[in-house]
Amino acid sequence: MKCPYCGNLTNKVIDSRLAGNSLSIRRRRECFKCSRRFTTYERIEQVPFMVVKKDGRREPFQREKLLDGLLKACGKRPISTQDIEDLVEEIERDVKEKFYDEVSSKKIGQMVMQNLRKLDEIAYVRFASVYRQFKDIEDFSKELKRFSEKQKGGGKK
Ligand SMILES: [Zn+2]
């Protein structure tokens, strides 16, 4: 691990701890040569977790893809990027705990929707329209209608 200040290759670890997501380890290091301190992150290498698509094909789980979809769904909604990242983190952890080594894309979609719904109804409907890939527009309208009725019903969630 090269010191970012002087380029020296030897240093000592002065502190190690799990990063917030528990999937990486944050280490505080001190350079032997210049004594300056810097931080490194080690990501735990994970066994590829497979997603089974509708047509039966499998592809490795890509958190970036999920994050991207969620960012789109949450566009212009009062949700912070941090909230979305936390959501992805939570879903990823949940999915891996419950499904061991593979999961259907449908199931992931359902889990996302459940979680997103708690966060923001509009983002939820938007995400649902993309992810669930409604068979016809009617399904989507039903969903929207149900949502707007709930809105009219008023009050807090
Ligand atoms: Zn140094």
Describe this structure in words.
By secondary structure, this protein is of the alpha+beta class. It has five helices and six strands, in the order βββββααβααα. A three-stranded antiparallel β-sheet has the order 1-2-3, with no helix packed on it. β4 (50-52) and β5 (58-60) form a beta hairpin. α1 packs across α4, α2 (81-99) packs across α3 (105-119) and α4 runs antiparallel to α5 (137-152). The radius of gyration is 21 Å and the shape is elongated. It starts with 10 loop residues before the first strand and ends in a 5-residue tail after the last helix. The model has no long low-confidence stretch (mean pLDDT 81). Bound molecules: zinc ion. Zinc ion binds at residues 3, 5-6, 8, 31, 33-34, 36.
Strand content: 15-25%
Q: Write the H/E string, N to C.
A: EEEEEHHEHHH
Write down the Rg: 21 Å
What's the mean pLDDT score? 81
User: Which of globular, elongated, flat, extended, rod-shaped describes the shape?
Assistant: elongated
Give the ligands present.
Answer: zinc ion
Total beta-strand segments: 6
Strand order of the largest sheet: 1-2-3
Cα(first) to Cα(last) distance is 50 Å
**Are there runs of 5+ residues with pLDDT below 50, and where?**
none
Put simply, the count of helices is 5
Structural class: alpha+beta
Give the biggest beta sheet. Answer: 3 strands, antiparallel
